[in-house]
């Protein structure tokens, strides 16, 4: 059953839906999660101000889903996860910067816990599309899904369109109403931009390895290495409150290298499935050569303090990693270990 989703989201209907759930609890103090099955009302604005489509050619269907975006309500529903038997109602006002013929819509969990993909609805019974979208013209959506599988770690709207539309669209979202998850959601407090994050425990053991050139998506280990590198995922340190473009990241890291290193460089990258090729440069200094030097004249087995202030050139989509490098002539051997001070 295919349904067209260019429908006005009437406020009276939405309020009625909230009333059927008992409304979003606004009172102070802990609130017990409601009993399932239940109906969620989720506004697209609670996934963020906007979402940009990226290349999904590797997994998408030609002409239908080779461009993909995945706005997420994970933080909103983490207290009261969506379960099989629930109903999810999605509302919002959307504006595209690109003309699109048809956008496929679904709900999914794309976390490692479900091997990176679990449809939370039955696409054979219910396939929604947004059709004939015109650049700069807002359209309202109001639709619902019966949920057929339990959310494990992530709850996202999966949007896809074909490569024939040209380019990668950005959707901006305007709020229609407050979301209702049957209880008061916990929203992560804004991160203090002046706080210095101590990474000593999280980077207690780092193995630096030769980084070989990439050719057609594969590293050529027969070529000479370009430099020595380690990539460390620090997403969890942001507690679900990922930075935005222009934010700074101040850190310190107490460590000991196993060899002498003349200059250690650090930059911010995204190393997740949300970006093409699992790699995106998100630091204002977006290359190994231009990365920020955070420590010099490191001596083997002597304590060193690596510290710096990095800036996000673009916002990460799903995660943040530190890319740590040193030049070929900066160390005494081909690789090194860095371990807890």
Features:
341 residues, ten-stranded mixed sheet, seven-stranded mixed sheet, 2 helices, 39% strand, globular, disordered N terminus
Helical residues, percent: under 10%
Rg calculated over all Cα atoms: 23 Å
Strand count:
24
Question: What integer is the average pLDDT?
Answer: 85
Question: Rough shape?
Answer: globular
Poorly predicted residue ranges: 1-30
Order of helices and strands: EHEEEEHEEEEEEEEEEEEEEEEEEE
Strand content: 35-45%
- Give the CA-CA distance, first to last residue: 61 Å
* Major sheet summary line: 10 strands, mixed
Query: What would you call the structural class?
Result: mainly beta
Count of alpha/pi helices: 2
Q: Please, could you describe this protein's structure?
A:
By secondary structure, the protein is mainly beta. Helix content is 4%, strand content 39%. It has 2 helices and 24 strands. It has helices spanning 11-21, 74-77; strands at 2-4, 39-43, 50-52, 54-55, 67-69, 87-96, 100-109, 118-119, 127-133, 139-146, 156-161, 170-174, 196-198, 205-211, 214-215, 218-219, 227-233, 248-257, 261-270, 280-281, 292-298, 304-311, 321-326, 336-340. The strands form 4 sheets. Strands 13, 14, 17, 18, 19, 20, 21, 22, 23 and 24 form a 10-stranded mixed beta sheet that branches. Strand 15 and strand 16 form a beta hairpin. The longest helix has 11 residues, at 11-21. The protein is globular.
């Amino acid at each position: 059953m295919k349904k067209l989703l260019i429908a006005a989201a009437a406020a009276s209907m939405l309020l009625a839906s909230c009333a059927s759930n008992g409304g979003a609890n606004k009172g102070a103090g802990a609130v017990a999660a409601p009993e399932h099955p239940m109906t969620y009302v989720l506004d697209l604005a609670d996934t963020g101000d906007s979402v940009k489509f990226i290349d999904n050619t590797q997994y998408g269907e030609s002409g239908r889903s080779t461009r993909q975006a995945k706005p997420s309500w994970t933080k909103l529903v983490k207290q009261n996860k969506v379960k099989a038997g629930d109903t999810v109602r999605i509302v919002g006002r959307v504006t595209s910067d690109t003309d699109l013929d048809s956008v496929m819509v679904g709900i999914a969990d794309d976390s490692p816990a479900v091997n990176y993909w679990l449809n939370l609805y039955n696409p054979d019974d219910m396939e929604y599309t947004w059709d004939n979208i015109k650049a700069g013209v807002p359209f309202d959506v109001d639709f619902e899904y019966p949920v057929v599988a339990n959310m494990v770690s992530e709850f996202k709207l999966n949007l896809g369109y074909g490569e024939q539309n040209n380019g990668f669209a950005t959707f901006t979202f305007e709020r229609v109403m407050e979301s209702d998850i049957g209880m008061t959601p916990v929203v992560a407090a804004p991160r203090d931009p002046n706080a210095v994050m101590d990474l000593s425990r999280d980077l207690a053991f780092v193995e630096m390895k030769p980084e070989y050139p990439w050719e057609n998506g594969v590293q050529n280990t027969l070529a000479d290495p370009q430099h020595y590198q380690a990539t460390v995922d620090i997403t969890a340190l942001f507690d679900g409150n990922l930075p935005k473009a222009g934010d700074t990241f101040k850190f310190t890291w107490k460590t000991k290298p196993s060899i002498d290193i003349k200059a250690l460089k650090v930059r911010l990258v995204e190393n997740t499935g949300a970006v093409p090729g699992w790699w995106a440069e998100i630091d204002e200094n977006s290359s190994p050569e231009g990365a920020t030097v955070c420590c010099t004249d490191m001596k083997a087995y002597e304590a060193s303090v690596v510290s710096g202030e990095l800036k996000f050139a673009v916002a990460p989509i799903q995660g943040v990693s530190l890319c740590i490098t040193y030049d070929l002539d900066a160390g005494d051997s081909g690789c090194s270990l860095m371990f807890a001070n």
